[in-house]
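CATEGORY: protein folding

GOAL: derive structure tokens
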Amino acid sequence: MIARLIEGVPRRTLAMLAALLIALIAAPLVSGDYLLTVMILILYFAYIGQAWNIMMGFAGQLSLGHALYVGLGAYTAAALYVHYGIGPWIGLLVAVPIAALAGAFIGFLAFRFRVAGVYFAILTIAFAEFARVGFDHLAWTSGSSGLFLPVAQYTHNDLWLLRGHPVMFYYVILAATALAFIICRALLQSRVGYFWLAIREDEEAARSAGIDTFHYKMVAVVISAGMTSFAGVFYAFFYNNLFPEQVFHISRSIEIILGPIVGGIGTLFGPILGALLLTGLAETLTAALAALGVDLPGAKQVFYGICLLLVIVALPDGVWPWLARKLGVRERKS
């Protein structure tokens, strides 16, 4: 299987991948607590960007409500832990099917009744808003008061319960991001990946060629939703508090999609590079303003908007395709 995954990949690309992985593994050894937190955020958005990229970049289905699946994963695992003491990994086994079923329901409504394009995007926003309002009044998850996970002073890292030092969380999200990268690579090389490409480029032509477009779009939505729910579980146990207005808000969905858009939709490295650029530079801007004693509300959002505008104008395919050409590496774009 490994041989198939690296088949056709230039040695230079493999060497760069290996160097990047080694650097990421060794990074906590030379990072302070603040830098480590920033790196966790970068990997978090890289992971979630890859999950969203399956749906939009590979299959061409624009979701602007992906915060729905983050919230479902987060609240499911957190509530099971708070009420019944069930650990996050067992909770994940419940969260993934719930998020996948939600994605399947939305996909069924949209694809069965030929809701596409901007109307499909609006439908995803609507369901995320329904969830926000619903969880805001759901007593089992403490409604708008917020759901808080118990936090204790641990003398050691408890991987099973995801309680411990940020270094542990760093390696968890690093492993998840690497696994997501491998899954996306395998999907692109598979028959399903080629069907998604055909659907994204011309759905009517794909249907005429005998491809079951409804089935394969549903597969993309279910996989993307299920993968995204893990990000929600990680979010809940890393931050230890959840508020519907915070988790399900459309601004969270926008943050999810910015990385792949800036990095390059439909590419493997695009979501990773986009997360690095946006999160890294935004946190640098925040730290610089704080050091100068300047308080500019919304500065990060303005920065995101400027970056998006610059990329759309100068590099409409994203930063990674341009950078790949400069580095002499290649990647099959979905």
User: Anything to note?
Assistant: The CA atoms of residues 43 and 173 lie 6 Å apart.
